[in-house]
Amino acid sequence: MTLNVETRHAVHQDHCKKMGTDELRNHFLFQKMFVTGEINLVYTHYDRFVVGGAVPGNGTLVLDKVEETRTETFLERREMGIVNIGQTGTVEADGETYTLEQGDVLYLGMGTGAITFAGEGRFYITSCPAHQAYPNRLVTIAESKEVVLGEADTSNKRRINQFIHPLVMPSCQLVLGYTALLEGSVWNTMPAHVHDRRMEAYLYWGMDEESRVLHLMGEPEETRHLFISNEEGAISPPWSIHSGAGIGKYTFIWAMAGDNVDYTDMDFIQPSELK
Length: 275
Ligand SMILES: O=C[C@H](O)[C@@H](O)CC(=O)C(=O)O
Ligand SMILES: [Zn+2]
Fold this sequence. Notes:
- Its EC number is 5.3.1.17.
- Belongs to the KduI family.
- One of its GO terms (molecular function) is 4-deoxy-L-threo-5-hexosulose-uronate ketol-isomerase activity.
- Catalyzes the isomerization of 5-dehydro-4-deoxy-D-glucuronate to 3-deoxy-D-glycero-2,5-hexodiulosonate.
- Its cofactor is Zn(2+).
- There is one protein chain.
- The strands form five sheets. This protein has a seven-stranded mixed sheet with strand order 1-3-4-11-6-9-12, with no helix packed on it. The protein has a seven-stranded antiparallel sheet with strand order 2-21-18-23-15-14-13. It has a four-stranded antiparallel sheet with strand order 5-10-7-8, with no helix packed on it.
- Strand 19 (about 215-220) and strand 20 (about 220-230) form a beta hairpin.
- It is mainly beta.
- It has helices spanning about 15, 20-30; strands spanning about 1-10, 30, 40-45, 50-55, 60-65, 80-85, 90-95, 95-100, 105-110, 115-120, 125-130, 135-140, 145-150, 160-165, 175-180, 185-190, 190-195, 200-205, 215-220, 220-230, 230-235, 245, 250-260, 265-270.
- The chain folds into two domains: about 1-10 and about 30-140, Jelly Rolls (Sandwich), CATH 2.60.120.10; about 140-275, Jelly Rolls (Sandwich), CATH 2.60.120.10.
- The chain has two helices and 24 strands.
C-alpha cells in the first residue's frame, strides 16, 4: 500500500500576483489524488488543513500514522470528513464499519484510531486540527441540509448540501458539503466572496473527462484562474475568492477550517468589483 504526503506552504498575496501558470498550479492545484491502491494526501499550512484521496480498488487501504503530524495516529489531535465520490465503499474506524454510498459523508472525531478504506469507493479525505472529540457519524444525503441558491437568469442556480455543518452536527473547525449546478447553470459561488478567517478547499468531480472548470482565485481586484479537470482540487487562501464556471456538468465539495463554523460568514464581492 502506498501513502504519499506532499506539504504545501502558505502563499502571500503579493507573491501570488507575480506567479506564472506553472507556479500557480504547483501551489494551488491538487492533481492525481485518486489513484487505485494509494492514499495521496496534501498537508497544507492553511490552518493545517489536509486533503486527499483513497481508492482501495479491490483491496484495503489503512490510514494510521502520518509522519508529518508527529503523532501516534493521524487523528490523535484532528477530526476528519470523508466523502465517497465513487461507488459503494466501506470505512472502518473504532471497530465500526460504515457503508458509504456515492455522496455520503462520514465524520470522524478526534482520537479515532486507524481508518480502513475498502470496496468500490473513491474517498475524498479532509482533515484539520481539533480540540474536542465529537462522535463519529455517517451523514447521508437525506440527512444533509439542502439549500437552493442563485437564478437561471444569472446562470448560477445551484443546490448546496451541507453535511458537516452546525445545523446538522457539531464539529470543532471542519465545515463540509457540496454544491451541484442545476440544468443550464454554470457558475458556482457567484457573486464571489472572501472570508479571511477561514481557508477553503474545493474538489471538482462528476465531470466528463474532456470537460474543464474555469476556477477563479486571487484577490478580488487581482484575479487568476486555473483550468481544472475531474477529481482535481484547488486550495483557497484566506485572501482569495473561490468561484468557478464549468464547461459541462460538475459538482464540487467545499471544505473549510478556521476561526468560526458560520457558513454564512462571507464578505461578498459583486461582479462589478472583480478585476
Ligand atoms: O464559504 C462557502 C463556500 O465558498 C461554498 O460553500 C460556496 C458554494 O458552494 C456556492 O456558493 O456555490
Ligand atoms: Zn467560501
